[in-house]
Design a protein that fits this description.
The structure holds 2 protein chains of 2 kinds. By secondary structure, chain A is α/β, with parallel strands linked by helices. Chain A has 9 helices and 9 strands. Chain A has 2 domains: 185 residues, 3-Layer(aba) Sandwich (Rossmann fold); 71 residues, no CATH class. Chain B has a single domain, classed as ABC transporter involved in vitamin B12 uptake, BtuC (Orthogonal Bundle), CATH 1.10.3470.10. The chains are: A alpha/beta, B mainly alpha. At the A-B interface, helix 3 of A face helix 7, helix 8 and helix 12 of B.
Chain lengths: 267, 268
Amino acid sequence: MNKREVGSGNPVIAELNDVWVGYNGKWVLKSIFLNCRAGEILGIVGPNGAGKSTLLKVIIGLIKPDRGNVSLFGKKPGKEARLDVGYLPQISHAERSFPVTALDVVMMGIYSRIGLFGRPGRKEREVALNMLSMVNMAEHAGRPFGVLSGGQQQRINIARALCSNPRLLMLDEPSTGVDSVAQEDFYVLLAKLRDEQGLSVIMVSHDIGVITSHADQVACLNVEVHYHGEPDLCISDEIMEKVFGKDLKIMVHDSKCATCHMRHEDV
Amino acid sequence: MIEILNFEFMRNAFLAGIMLSIVLAVVSFFVVLKRYSFIGVGVSHSAFGGVALGSLLGISPTLTALGFAVIVSNAIGYVGRRERLSTDTAIGIFFALAMALGVIFIGLSDKYNTDLFGYLFGNILAITRTDIVVVGVLGTIVLFACYFFFKELLFVAFDSEVAFVSGMPVVFLDHFFLTILAIAVVISIKIVGIVLVSALLVIPGAAASQVTDRYVSMIAVSIGVALISTIGGLVISYYADLASGATIVTFASLIFFIMVGVGRLRKR
């Protein structure tokens, strides 16, 4: 994937200013300062329990911070701001036996735009079918959602998130259950949407390789933000130790990892 | 069959039963998908407190039962969402409280009211023309509410978190549905009874879910199951001289088990 120089002049669309979130008497997020600019893919990386999903939920307004300010499209993260957000949660709460087809699930992404009392018509159906083609799932449109594999369901959920034509896509562990070929296709698609439509993406992953290969900006999180900047500088031993602990061995197979080939030869 | 319809009370029972079947089947579709079965049990039993209060004050028990059921269903929804209690615990508390109040109201009333037994287990002889109008009007409101908010209720039932982020008024929709549920329960208690009405909030949808994987067909099958159960149950109860509510629920359960078998055969 070709990296694009993200201009620092692009407007900030999501910003966290000294955000603290506590749960059961313990800080889950501490003094978070972070921003995401328009047309930028921001990757948030960190181990399990680092507060990554909580951070996403704070940005969307699903969790209110104990301290600090959050702004989304220059507003508090309320209903109006959320209309421009496509969201893919880490855990889908949907029942496997829920009586809907893949196309029904994708169309749910447009429901809010149709408004109360409105019914999805031919136009909405076409938009949803286009999204299904985009994630290579068009031939599964009429199949029940519950019979699809985990990876296929994930792609359907991504199509739903894209269906409302969002300005910002928030993805919580988007690679879960998706095989590596489909993953690569998905990140190519994200870059295309970013370049052609100016889509911004905030994605969370525990997979350092995925984040450093595909994000324009990286934030390394473990309760606190230990690094926020270009992905190239993220993989310093000092930062990795702070985020993931001392016992981490980094095996990143991408062009950014200068020592990658040496490590392979060592093995 | 014709003989049954010679009696006005049976004609009333069939008319009310058919209207209720459609209403309960549609509500049951959402109850099953939202996993609200136990909320249905809690709300229906809370109506007992309302019936007893109406009886004590000498006003329409249906009206007071409606008030109790709407308050309790919304309180369960509120506590389950806001407080450090699970919905399950909230149901356990409000259900018992409303029943306890019902017993106290009966104690305060100096007359022994045989009608109360009818409300608990259903009494088709007690269905009046006014009841049919009430079932017709409130049932139509419930059906229209489900129709107009169908896509919203479906999305929230599918994944409330994603629905919320996409801009759906999830809290409003939850309370809206709980109110619909309460209305559906109250208009059904005369025919099926407080103790058994929750079964009809679950069985039609649950039976339909065994044999369908599209929501339109699930609603259609759910309505079919409810209609067959109610009409069949009323006919059997008439000829075998059995309690109508219990016969309807037993018949519906039988259909459910058959549907489970059919569902398993389909998957093979």
